[in-house]
Amino acid sequence: MSSNDLIVSLDIGTSKVRVIIGEISNGSINIIGVGSADSEGIRKGAIVDIDQTVQSIRNAVDHAERMVGITISEVYVGIAGNHISLQSNHGVVAVSNEDREIGEEDIERVLQAARVVALPPEREIIGLLPKQFLVDGLPGIQDPRGMIGVRLEVECTIITGTKAAVHNLMRCVEKAGLKISGIVLMSLASGMMALTKDEKQMGTVLADIGAGATTIAIFEGGSLAAVSTLPIGGDYVTSDICYGLKTQTEHAEKIKLKFGCARTEDAAEDQKFKVMRVGSNVEKEFSQYDLAIIIEPRMQEIFHMIRQEVKRLGYLDKINGYVLTGGSVSMPGVLTLAQSELESNVRIAVPDFIGVRDPSFSSGVGMIQYVTKYVRTHGASAAKRPAKSKAAGGTTSSKPGIREWFKNIFKEFI
Fold first, then answer.
1. In angstroms, rounded to a whole number, what is the distance separating the alpha carbons of residues 179 and 407?
2. Predicted TM-score of the model (pTM)
3. Rounded to an integer, what distance in angstroms lies between the CA atom of residue 18 and that of residue 350?
4. Residue 411 pLDDT > 60, yes or no?
């Protein structure tokens, strides 16, 4: 990676489409631009209208471009949803060099061998995560390059998704006039930003509570062990407020963001606000306590469902804590309520970058960190500076396609 690369992440969520521009300077990341737009055409994390989604992506990209004064041409796209699944696989090859020294070609061949797996016709491989390599039966090797051996094996996790969901996502991005530099699993990206090395090793649940869905990622033994998606999120809280206060959804969302509190014990009865009710021209006054009475049961239900899902996956007794992220966890009182409902250690992860210090930006920032660490970009940038800096970047080099991107990610993982 060159000393000053630009990496652009695209996070297509249920409530917002977010574009984050990261500048990589001498190995450190600076967030130089953020663009967001309301999501249209997305329901519970799934694309239901191509044209509306395309327009939302364009709006977010335009917003980011105006902020920084650059033209965005390529993006790394995050993917999530209940169609994602993980499965373990094993690959084995004979070392090809005459002197039996393991080289890059051997590693690529064993990773390709691990990708040979029987899948239903509607599914395809999104990515592959090596857990460990074995050289002549010796386990626990993270980087076998330069070692001497006859047989090279790899144990890995294969990430698969439905072809329809993957291709619809790619089609939306391409119709918005953008080139896809790579596809990143959101759970891995969020884990990159939110979790420490020890948390991944000891066993931690990362719960990303978005507007339309809650994504659960379980990390154990240093790698991603399980993923799951619950079709519930912050939109359900908004809907409850809408019915409880008998107001429009737009007003309910604004009230939630401004006055919302996840626990009645933390709510103030003297903090009042007025609501225009449906079918009436008269505003009615409510307190933050009244609002918390509506919000608390739904947030309790979300945390209860998270705990039950972790139990269903078989990891309830194996994990040592929960880390929360996503736009819905920034509400006051969420942390205390989560600690009570989940009966475990809980913390909220927030990106430590100026301009994006909010849990809703965790996935987008995590993608930039993930790409910086694991993906080799060969000096190509995902965005173009204004004309005056062309000399620094030179002509646009040939950017590796999706297949090349996957090959490169394998190289950097080990």
1. 18
2. 0.86
3. 16
4. no
Residue type, 36: S
Please state, as a whole number, how many other Cβ atoms lie within 10 Å of the Cβ of residue 247: 21
Alpha carbon distance 154, 171 (integer Å): 33
Long-range contacts of 165-169 (CB under 8 A, 24+ apart): 165/46, 165/47, 165/79, 165/81, 165/83, 166/79, 166/124, 166/126, 168/47, 168/50, 169/12, 169/47, 169/77, 169/79
**Dist. CA 147–CA 142, nearest whole Å:** 11
Closest CA relative to residue 368, chosen from 386, 379, 353 = 353
- The beta strands (E) that lie in 320-411 are given as 322-325, 346-348, 383-384
User: If we measure between CA atoms, which residue out of 183, 237, 255, 249 comes closest to residue 402?
Assistant: 183
Distance CA 260, CA 238 (A): 10
What are the phi and psi torsion angles at 57 (to 5°)? Answer: -65, -45
Q: How far separated are the first and last CA of the chain, in Å rounded?
A: 17
| Side chain identity, residue 217 | A
Distance (Å, whole) CA 347 – CA 239:
26
CB within 8 Å of 329: residues ≥ 6 apart = 209, 335, 338, 348, 359
Q: Of 1, 4, 27, whose CA–CA distance to 393 is shortest?
A: 4
Q: 315: which strand partners?
A: none
Is the CA virtual torsion 134, 139, 145, 146 positive or negative? negative
- The better pLDDT of the pair 374, 145 is held by 145
67: its two tokens: 């902020």
Percent of the chain, pLDDT > 70? 90
Angle subtended by helix axes 362-374 and 402-413, to nearest 10? 80
State how far Cα 223 lies from the chain centre. 15
